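Ops channel
N.P.: pipeline sanity check, posting one input/output pair.
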C-alpha cells in the first residue's frame, strides 16, 4: 500500500506538469498468461497507468522477440517494457535491443552497471531486488550485521541484489542447491532469498528461529511458509515495476523540457601564415554530430544522422520546446560588396565562435546551403551561392561536405521542380490530343470496378465551384471545366532547373521528338537555387505550410487569363513527398565546435536570399532565453537585409535584436572613388597602400547609407570591420570612428579569419550590449499599399532613387496581379548587388536616378512579387577555365584536392 500511494502521488505530480501524460507499461510474453495480465491490470487501475500486453507464440524465435522489443523501445507512448519470458529467451541480442531508459526490470548491462557503481538515479532497481529490500527493511529494526543467503542465484538479479544488500551493511552469502554446505549456510542466515527453486525441499529444522524465508520464483513449492511469502513478493514485484514505470515517465517528461547546454569547445591553434581553407578544415576533426546534438539539448529521436559530421533535425523539436522563450536574434548583413565579397559568412561564423567558445554564451549560426554551380565555377561574382562555409579559422567543417551535396536538399528541390515541368508539358500534350471524355476516363479511372476522385481532384472541384464527389454525376460542361487547364504555351512561367552552371540551357526548345506530336515550345533552365521551391523551403514554417505553398505555385496562365497552379496539375502532394526530408535543417559545426544549421539557399537577387525560417526558429529555442542566433542575409543590406525584414520576418513573425553590418576597407575605398575590382585580377595599388581619403569617402557614402537603411526598420547596428592583411591600423580606426558618427551603436575590427573566435570577441561583446538596447522594429511598408507604391517605397527609401519607371509589360503585369488578388503580397526586388542603384558601375550612394522596372513576376507559393530591375540571369555560365580543372580525387585515400 505504501509503494502504491507513493507511485500514485508521482503520477499526480507528473499530470500536473502535463495533463495529457499517462505512464504506460508494455509486457512481452511468450504464450498466454491471463493470471499475469489480471494482476497487472488490477494494479494499473489502482495506480493510474496503461498496460499493453503482447503475447508471442510460446516457442517464439529470438528475432520475433527482438522485433517487438525494438518497436516498443522506439514508441514514445511506452515508458516501460517488461520481458515476461523464459530465462533462456533473455539473450544478449534481446537485452541489447531493449532501451535502458525503458528497462524497468533492470535487465540491461547499463542498468546493472549503474547499480553496481552506486548510481541509482540513472538506471532502475529490479523489482525483485526492491521487493526483497523492502521485505527485509520491514521485518528487521536494524539490518546491519545480519546475514542473508541468496539461493539459486543467477545473472542480473543475483548481482544487483547482492550489491544493494551489502550496501545496507548486511553480509551476503550466495549458494546453489548443490552446495555441500547448504545446511550450515541456511542455519546461520537471518534471511533466505530463493531466486530460483531447486528440486529438493528445505526442512523447517534448518532455519534459524525468526529467520525470514521467501521465494521470488513463482514455480517454487517448498512449503506453506514459502507459498505465503511467495505470493506477497510477486505482488510487491508488480508494484515496484509500476513504480519504475512512473519513474521512467518522469525522466522522459524531464527530458522533453529544455536542457541546459554542456557544449565542449574545440581549441584552435592558428598558424601564421594562415593555410588554405581546405588545409585548415582537414587539420581539425569535428565532434561526432551525435555528441554535438546531446551537448545542445537535442534528443536522440530528434536526430537523423548522415555520416559522422552532419544530421537532419526533426521539426518535432518545435513542439517539444513550444513554451521555451526565444534567444536573441542577430542578422549579419553588409555594405555593397566588391565582386570579391566582403566576408559576411566568415563574420557570422567568427561571431558565434566568439560567443560560444570564448564568452561561454549559447550561440547558433544559421547559414544557407551553397550551390554546386559556383563551387565548380571558380569565380566569385555569385557569392550568394557558393563558398558559404566561411574561411580561414572561421568556417564550418568538414567544408567538402558543406559544399558538395550535403544532405541532398538541392537535389530534392531539383527533382520536385522538374516534376512540375514534366507535368506541365504532359498535360498540354494530352489535352491537345484527347477528347473531354477520354481525358476524364484517364484522369478518373475505374479501379476494380470502382471510380472515385482523388483528394487533390476533389480540391480542384471545390475551387471550380463543383460540389460533387461522385464521378458519374458530373455534367458534360463540368467535365470540360474539370479536365481542361487550357494552358497557354506562350505564358508558361515555369522553368526546369539544374544545379550546374550551363549557359546553353538558358533558352531551349522542348517537344521536338515525333512522339510529342508537334507540341514544341521555347523554355529554359534556371540554376536550382533560383527555383521557387527553394524560396518556399526557406519561408515555410512547417510541413503543412510548405505543402500549401507548393500547391499555390502558379506555373502559367490559361488562354482565358486564369492562373494555373501546381494543385491544378494534381502534383502538389507528390512535391510535398519529395520535399519531406529537405524541410529539416542540417546540423553541422564550426572549427571551434559551435553548432550551425545549414538550410535552404535561395538566390539572393531573384528570391529573398536568406536561410530558412525553420532553422532560425529551431535555433532560437535551442539556445535558450540568454543565447544568440546569428543568421546571414545575402549581398548588401539594400538587398538581403531589406528582404529579410520585409519578407522573411513577415513569414516567421520573428523580430531581430541587432544588425551586424560587415564592411571592409577594400570595399569602402571602391565606394570612395577607387578603381574597379575584378575577380582573378591583381588588386590596384589603391587597395594595397594606405589611402585614408578613399576609405573616408566610402564611409560617408555607402556605409552611411547602409546604416540608415537598417535604421529605417528601427534596429540598432554594429559595424564589423573585416580586417584584411593589406589594411593599416589608421584605416581601420578611421572606419570605426566614422561608422559611429554615422549612427552605428558600435564599430569594431574583426580578425576572425586569422584568429578564429578569439579575433571576434570585441564584436561579440558589442553585439551582446546592443541587444540590451530598446528595439523599435517596424516594416518598411504596409502590405495593403498598392504594389506600385510598395515598389516605389523600396526604390526611394532604400536605394535612393528619385522615382521608378514601369515598362508597358511591367505595368500590364501589375494590373494582372491586382486583378488576381495578389496585391497584398510583399515585394522582392531583383537587381544588381554591385550598386545601390540598378547600374553596377555606380558606386557609393547614388541619388536622383530613375529606377527602371522592365518586368514584374510572381512567386505566389513563396508569397512575393518580384520586379526585375535591369538584366538578371538565373542560369550562370562557365568561364573559359572553370575550377574543375583543379579538382580531383585520390582513389586510395578518397581525399579531394583543388576545392577552395
Amino acid at each position: 500500500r505504501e509503494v502504491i500511494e507513493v507511485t500514485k502521488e508521482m503520477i499526480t505530480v507528473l499530470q500536473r506538469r502535463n495533463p495529457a501524460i499517462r505512464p504506460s507499461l508494455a509486457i512481452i510474453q511468450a504464450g498466454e498468461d491471463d493470471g499475469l495480465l489480471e494482476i497487472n491490470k488490477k494494479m494499473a487501475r489502482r495506480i493510474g497507468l496503461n498496460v499493453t500486453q503482447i503475447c508471442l507464440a510460446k516457442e517464439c524465435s529470438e528475432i520475433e522477440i527482438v522485433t517487438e522489443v525494438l518497436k516498443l523501445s522506439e514508441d514514445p507512448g511506452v515508458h516501460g517494457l517488461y520481458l515476461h519470458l523464459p530465462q533462456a529467451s533473455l539473450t544478449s541480442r534481446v537485452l541489447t535491443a531493449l532501451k535502458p531508459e525503458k528497462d524497468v526490470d533492470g535487465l540491461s548491462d547499463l542498468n546493472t552497471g549503474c547499480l553496481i557503481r552506486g548510481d541509482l538515479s540513472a538506471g532502475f532497481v529490479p523489482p525483485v531486488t526492491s521487493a526483497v529490500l523492502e521485505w527485509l527493511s520491514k521485518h528487521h529494526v536494524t539490518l546491519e550485521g545480519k546475514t542473508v543467503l541468496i539461493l539459486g542465484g543467477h545473472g542480473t538479479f543475483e548481482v544487483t541484489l547482492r550489491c544493494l544488500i551489502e550496501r545496507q551493511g548486511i553480509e551476503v552469502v550466495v549458494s546453489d542447491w548443490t552446495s555441500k554446505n547448504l545446511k550450515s549456510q541456511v542455519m546461520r542466515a537471518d534471511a533466505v532469498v530463493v531466486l530460483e527453486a531447486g528440486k529438493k525441499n528445505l526442512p523447517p529444522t534448518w532455519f534459524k528461529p525468526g529467520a525470514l524465508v521467501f521465494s521470488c520464483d513463482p514455480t517454487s513449492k517448498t512449503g506453506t511458509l514459502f507459498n505465503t511469502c511467495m505470493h506477497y513478493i510477486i505482488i510487491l514485484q508488480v508494484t515496484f515495476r509500476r513504480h519504475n514505470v512512473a519513474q521512467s515517465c518522469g525522466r522522459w517528461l524531464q527530458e522533453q523540457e529544455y536542457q541546459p547546454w554542456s557544449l565542449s569547445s574545440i581549441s584552435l591553434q592558428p598558424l601564421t601564415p594562415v593555410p588554405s581553407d581546405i588545409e585548415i578544415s582537414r587539420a581539425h576533426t569535428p565532434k561526432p554530430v551525435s555528441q554535438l546534438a546531446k551537448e545542445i539539448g537535442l534528443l536522440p529521436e530528434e536526430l537523423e544522422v548522415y555520416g559522422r559530421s552532419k544530421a537532419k533535425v526533426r521539426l518535432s523539436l518545435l513542439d517539444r520546446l513550444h513554451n521555451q522563450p526565444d534567444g536573441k536574434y542577430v542578422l549579419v548583413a553588409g555594405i555593397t560588396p566588391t565582386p570579391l565579397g566582403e566576408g559576411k559568412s566568415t563574420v557570422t561564423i567568427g561571431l558565434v565562435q566568439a560567443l560560444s567558445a570564448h564568452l561561454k554564451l549559447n550561440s547558433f549560426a544559421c547559414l544557407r546551403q551553397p550551390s554546386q554551380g559556383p563551387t565548380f565555377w571558380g569565380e566569385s561574382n555569385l557569392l550568394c551561392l557558393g563558398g558559404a562555409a566561411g574561411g580561414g579559422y572561421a568556417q564550418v567543417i568538414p567544408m567538402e561536405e558543406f559544399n558538395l551535396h550535403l544532405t541532398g536538399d538541392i537535389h530534392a528541390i531539383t527533382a520536385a521542380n522538374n516534376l512540375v515541368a514534366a507535368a506541365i508539358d504532359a498535360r498540354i500534350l494530352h489535352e491537345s490530343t484527347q477528347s473531354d471524355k477520354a481525358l476524364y476516363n484517364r484522369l478518373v479511372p475505374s479501379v476494380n470496378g470502382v471510380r472515385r476522385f482523388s483528394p487533390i481532384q476533389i480540391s480542384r472541384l471545390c475551387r471550380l465551384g463543383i460540389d460533387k464527389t461522385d464521378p458519374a454525376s458530373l455534367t458534360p460542361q463540368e467535365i470540360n471545366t474539370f479536365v481542361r487547364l487550357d494552358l497557354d504555351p506562350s505564358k508558361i512561367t515555369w522553368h526546369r532547373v539544374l544545379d550546374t552552371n550551363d549557359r546553353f540551357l538558358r533558352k531551349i526548345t522542348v517537344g521536338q521528338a515525333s512522339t510529342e506530336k508537334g507540341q514544341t515550345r521555347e523554355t529554359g533552365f534556371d540554376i536550382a537555387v533560383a527555383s521557387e521551391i527553394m524560396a518556399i523551403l526557406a519561408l515555410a514554417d512547417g510541413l503543412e505550410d510548405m505543402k500549401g505553398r507548393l500547391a499555390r505555385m502558379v506555373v502559367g496562365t490559361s488562354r482565358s487569363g486564369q492562373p494555373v497552379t501546381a494543385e491544378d496539375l494534381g502534383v502538389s502532394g507528390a512535391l510535398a513527398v519529395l520535399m519531406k526530408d529537405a524541410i529539416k535543417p542540417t546540423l553541422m559545426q564550426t572549427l571551434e565546435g559551435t553548432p550551425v544549421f545549414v538550410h535552404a539557399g535561395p538566390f539572393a537577387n531573384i528570391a529573398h536570399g536568406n536561410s530558412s525560417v525553420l532553422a532560425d526558429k529551431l535555433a532560437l529555442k535551442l539556445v535558450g532565453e540568454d543565447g544568440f542566433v546569428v543568421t546571414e542575409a545575402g549581398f548588401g543590406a539594400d538587398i538581403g537585409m531589406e528582404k529579410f525584414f520585409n519578407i522573411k520576418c513577415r513569414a516567421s513573425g520573428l523580430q531581430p535584436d541587432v544588425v551586424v553590418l560587415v564592411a571592409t576597407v577594400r570595399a569602402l575605398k571602391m565606394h570612395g572613388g577607387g578603381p574597379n575590382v575584378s575577380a582573378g585580377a591583381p588588386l590596384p595599388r589603391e587597395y594595397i597602400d594606405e589611402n585614408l581619403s578613399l576609405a573616408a569617402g566610402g564611409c560617408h557614402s555607402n556605409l552611411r547609407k547602409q546604416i540608415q537603411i537598417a535604421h529605417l526598420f528601427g534596429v540598432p547596428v554594429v559595424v564589423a570591420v573585416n580586417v584584411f592583411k593589406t589594411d593599416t591600423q589608421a584605416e581601420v580606426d578611421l572606419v570605426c570612428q566614422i561608422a559611429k558618427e554615422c549612427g552605428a551603436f558600435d564599430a569594431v575590427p574583426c580578425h576572425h579569419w586569422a584568429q578564429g573566435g578569439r579575433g571576434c570577441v570585441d564584436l561579440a561583446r558589442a553585439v551582446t550590449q546592443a541587444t540590451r538596447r530598446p528595439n523599435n522594429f517596424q516594416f518598411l511598408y504596409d502590405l495593403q499599399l498598392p504594389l506600385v507604391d510598395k515598389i516605389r517605397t523600396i526604390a526611394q527609401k532604400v536605394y535612393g532613387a528619385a522615382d521608378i519607371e514601369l515598362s508597358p509589360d511591367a505595368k500590364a503585369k501589375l494590373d494582372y496581379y491586382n486583378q488576381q488578388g495578389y496585391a497584398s503580397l510583399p515585394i522582392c526586388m531583383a537587381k544588381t548587388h554591385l550598386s545601390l542603384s540598378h547600374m553596377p558601375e555606380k558606386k557609393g550612394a547614388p541619388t536622383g536616378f530613375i529606377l527602371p522596372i522592365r518586368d514584374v513576376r510572381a512567386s505566389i507559393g513563396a508569397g512575393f512579387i518580384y520586379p526585375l530591375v535591369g538584366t538578371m540571369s538565373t542560369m550562370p555560365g562557365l568561364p573559359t577555365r572553370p575550377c574543375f580543372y583543379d579538382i580531383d580525387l585520390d582513389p586510395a585515400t578518397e581525399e579531394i584536392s583543388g576545392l577552395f
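N.P.: looks fine end to end. Residues 787-868 form a domain with the Formyltetrahydrofolate synthetase; domain 3 fold (CATH 3.10.410.10).
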